[in-house]
């Protein structure tokens, strides 16, 4: 979005720049090449469920994994709005890859972490797309939950080992790197663990959405490197969860838009009683309602991205508004798309079911719409906040 020295008016505030439009076009072209329906169905049955060559291309050739990462940290610069555009297009194509674990959560955590060799060495290959990451950090409705940390850290001099189990870690099966919170004598710290080393075992879970695999991760005296100590880890983790919630909302917007486009196209071509079904009032009104929900969701998602990027609003509030709005919109549009498509919409062979399962999985990842509405009430009506403040990234 265009930057101005003065307060922008309504028409300027949410205008994408030509460069951002070109970015959208580039990602859409990439998805057309690497994320068609046949490829999605093939990858979601694979282990790990993504194409490493395509993932490396996203990082090294397109450079989008480094959006929001300062250039001095080998990133692409840009901001969260740029990253949201990328994730929206990947969501529209239902791209199979560790987008959530790497781009949405782990990279923002590393950017927010204090300067150290561990941060630099871990971040560089993630930005390049040569490695992937997962975020093994507990949350309750997108809010960091230190009391739920189930891993313990033990130190011997400058070396650390971790023991314990973290359940339902998204993208853990694809991850080379794990960011893990663990209990230490004075609280909870954040560590980096090489998932390919001994002492780490991953058990892939049977999930509803096969395009977004999850795994239980067990640590048996696994070697770890300290990324953020107990005085810094809570803020770093909460920052990552705010960014993750915002990018998840952008993904929901992209997938919902794809379903809306499918519904409109089908309503134009499907004939009933010699007329397109889109001419019938019941179908016409349903699709109109879907459009209203989608536009509302898009505004909420991009406002959250803009507000976090420019630090213009309460991060807990804007991310909860985005998640409450986008989760509800995506699940509603996914359900209505099945209805609009009628008989064919109820068959597993139709792509609507892939999106339907993603919709209900996404709605539970970082808190349900109901949980986020409750938080909005706390923040607005009660005037309270329990989220940690967003740290300033150091470079």
UniProtKB/TrEMBL annotation:
Molecular function via GO: acyl-CoA dehydrogenase activity; flavin adenine dinucleotide binding
> Would I find Oxidoreductase among this entry's keywords?
yes
User: What does UniProt list as this organism's lineage?
Assistant: Bacteria, Bacillati, Actinomycetota, Actinomycetes, Mycobacteriales
Q: Which residues form the Acyl-CoA dehydrogenase/oxidase N-terminal domain?
A: 17-129
Cofactors named for this entry: FAD
Indicate the segments forming the Acyl-CoA dehydrogenase/oxidase C-terminal domain, all copies: 236-379
Keywords in UniProt for this one? Answer: FAD, Flavoprotein, Oxidoreductase
Supply the InterPro entries for this chain.
Acyl-CoA_Oxase/DH_mid-dom_sf (IPR046373), AcylCo_DH-like_C (IPR036250), AcylCo_DH/oxidase_C (IPR009075), AcylCoA_DH/ox_N (IPR013786), AcylCoA_DH/ox_N_sf (IPR037069), AcylCoA_DH/oxidase_NM_dom_sf (IPR009100)
Protein family per UniProt: Belongs to the acyl-CoA dehydrogenase family.
Pfam families linked: Acyl-CoA_dh_1, Acyl-CoA_dh_N
Protein name from the UniProt record: Acyl-CoA dehydrogenase
Instruction: Identify the domain of life.
Output: Bacteria
Q: Which organism is it from?
A: Mycolicibacterium fortuitum subsp. fortuitum DSM 46621 = ATCC 6841 = JCM 6387
């Amino acid at each position: 979005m265009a930057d101005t020295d003065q307060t922008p008016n309504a028409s300027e505030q949410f205008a994408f720049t030509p460069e951002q439009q070109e970015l959208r076009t580039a990602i859409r072209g990439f998805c057309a090449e690497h994320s068609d329906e046949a490829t999605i169905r093939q990858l979601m049955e694979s282990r790990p469920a993504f194409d490493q060559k395509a993932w490396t291309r996203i990082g090294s050739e397109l450079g989008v994994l480094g959006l929001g990462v300062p250039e001095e940290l080998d990133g692409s610069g840009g901001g969260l709005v740029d990253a949201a555009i990328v994730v929206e297009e990947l969501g529209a194509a239902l791209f199979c890859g560790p987008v959530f674990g790497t781009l949405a959560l782990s990279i923002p955590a590393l950017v927010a972490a204090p300067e150290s060799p561990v941060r630099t060495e871990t971040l560089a290959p993630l930005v390049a797309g040569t490695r992937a990451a997962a975020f093994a950090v507990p949350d309750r409705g997108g809010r960091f939950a230190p009391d739920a940390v189930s891993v313990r850290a033990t130190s011997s001099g400058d070396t650390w080992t971790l023991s314990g189990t973290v359940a339902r870690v998204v993208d853990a099966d694809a991850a080379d790197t794990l960011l893990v919170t663990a209990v230490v004598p004075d609280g909870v710290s954040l560590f980096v663990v090489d998932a390919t080393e001994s002492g780490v075992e991953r058990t892939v879970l049977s999930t509803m959405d096969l395009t977004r695999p999850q795994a239980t991760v067990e640590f048996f005296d696994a070697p770890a490197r300290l990324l953020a100590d107990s005085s810094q880890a809570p803020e770093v983790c909460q920052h990552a969860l705010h960014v993750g919630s915002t990018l998840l909302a952008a993904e929901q917007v992209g997938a919902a838009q794809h379903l809306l486009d499918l519904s409109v196209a089908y309503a134009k071509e499907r004939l009933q009683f010699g007329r397109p079904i889109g001419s019938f009032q019941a179908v016409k009104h349903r699709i109109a309602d879907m459009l209203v929900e989608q536009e509302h969701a898009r505004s909420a998602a991009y406002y959250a991205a803009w507000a976090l990027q420019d630090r213009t609003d309460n991060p807990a509030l804007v991310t909860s508004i985005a998640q409450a709005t986008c989760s509800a919109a995506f699940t509603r549009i996914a359900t209505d798309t099945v209805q609009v498509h009628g008989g064919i919409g109820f068959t597993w062979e139709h792509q609507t079911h892939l999106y339907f399962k993603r919709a209900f999985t996404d709605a539970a990842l970082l808190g349900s719409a109901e949980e986020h509405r409750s938080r909005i009430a706390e923040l607005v009506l009660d005037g309270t906040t329990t989220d940690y403040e967003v740290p300033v990234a150091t470079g």
